[in-house]
Amino acid sequence: MSAALSIDSVKSQAKGLNFRNRAFIAGSYTDAANGRTFECISPIDGRVLTEIARCDVEDVNRAVAAARAAFEDGRWRDLAPVQRKRTLQKFADLIESHTTELALLETLDMGKPIGDSTRIDVPATVNCIRWYGEAIDKIYDEVAPTAGNVIAMLRREPMGVIAAIVPWNFPMIMAAWKIGPALATGNSLILKPAEQSSLTAIRLAELAAEAGIPESVFQVVPGLGQEAGQALARHMDVDGIAFTGSGEVGKLLLKYSGESNMKRVALECGGKTPHIVMADAADLDAAANAAAWGIFFNQGEVCNAGSRLLVEESIKDEFLEKVKAVAQSMRFGNPLDPATQVGAIVDEDQFQKVLSYIGLGAQEGAELILGGQQAMTESGGFYIEPTIFDRVNNRMRIAQEEIFGPVLATLTFKDGEEAVKIGNDTIYGLAAAVWTNDINRAHKMAKGLRAGSVWVNCFDGGDITTPFGGYKQSGFGRDKSLHAFDKYTELKTIWIELH
Ligand code: NAD
Prior knowledge:
Radius of gyration: 23 Å
CATH class of the largest domain: Alpha Beta
Largest sheet: 7 strands, mixed
CATH superfamily of the largest domain: Aldehyde Dehydrogenase, Chain A, domain 1
Shape: globular
Structural class: alpha/beta
Bound molecules: nicotinamide-adenine-dinucleotide
Strand order of the largest sheet: 14-17-18-13-12-20-21
Oligomer: single chain
CATH topology of the largest domain: Aldehyde Dehydrogenase, Chain A, domain 1
């Protein structure tokens, strides 16, 4: 999507879209067995885009039976890895050639700027699937260093039927982080998109079939978490759940697993990332730019958003002025406008939740220094201005709880040790960042921060080659990189004695 395009031309492209709105089970689109649907509402203007199949236990049972049959007959897992690789690469190519359509669907459905959907979400999805396809025919199993009369082979085998349950903030990317490694390793995968953002997932199923992924190896069951999601997580014949979403639902999945078949559960949950700026940082302008984008990118609906800005006391006022200036320069507006950088909040529930946290921050005694208001009310959509609080202390709820919106809480500290202590003082441990020009301090703080990713003199660095996931209640298991294969495979020892 070129920034030179006008909003009117993007809107007219959007008018031509055909919304796939049904489940994709056993090779074809199908209504939910109970005939029910739910509304797919665009947060851009509150308009109903389409009605989506509301799958429940019966549909999940059908999808799981089909996925199991596909796994058992080996139509996918028994292919040579190089063949799975070729198919996944074709799938990635097809996604890439549908960039405009998929980006529009993502933006209409969840309100992120069309420039981001086009330049970040679709390319990252393509890259992820291509990378796992590319990796799978280059990985070897192991032979253990046993005594000479034994050959002990350690083999990675696909787990079987995997359910991927994903959130709405990066619908395609979060799905791709599961689809890539799960399919590359030969599993059958059932994707349950978030009810707020089902459109791209449903379309991907068709592209996967077109790419040659065999019937029932990749299926999509849209529906509500309590219904389709719970049915998958309690199913006796699902072998693993790969989840991204809230800690609250993550804990339910552990319970469902324990109450059913002890299926493997991997959880990528929330965060409250401390973004730490030391007074000796070499480039405070760069740090301020990163601090502002670290919270306002994707409307703050990012699991690793730098939602707690920890600034060394001596530079706080100067630094916060810089962050505020960056936030004020962001182009906030209609997500279909190619010039927009900050768009709409995903739905009315999330919008109300964010507004209530803004009210709470003021009640708790924090000082609102930017934003805090609903915006663009005439649109019928859900917009909240980039919001900054100063004078937050770490005991306040706005410092402890994940808001998942464009709200930054600013705290101060006296030295690196105190910064690490405050940084670690939440239930989460997804990510952290430190800006400093002192290499010893950088290493010490990176070591002290209990988080799955620590960025030094940057924010949100990483690519498909680096693992991503959390410590503490941010979850366990890792997406991305070769380490993600652990979530989709069992490790078998074959011990052979030579006589
Ligand atoms: P959510 O937990 O409400 O929903 C996530 C998914 O779980 C959805 O598909 C939903 O339908 C399903 N679900 C809900 N209830 C269920 C149930 N009882 N049984 C089975 N499935 C159920 O999360 P959300 O609001 O969609 O997403 C926001 C959350 O996701 C935030 O906490 C955010 O931090 C987290 N997130 C984490 C990462 C990460 O990589 N760590 C990435 C993105 C988002």
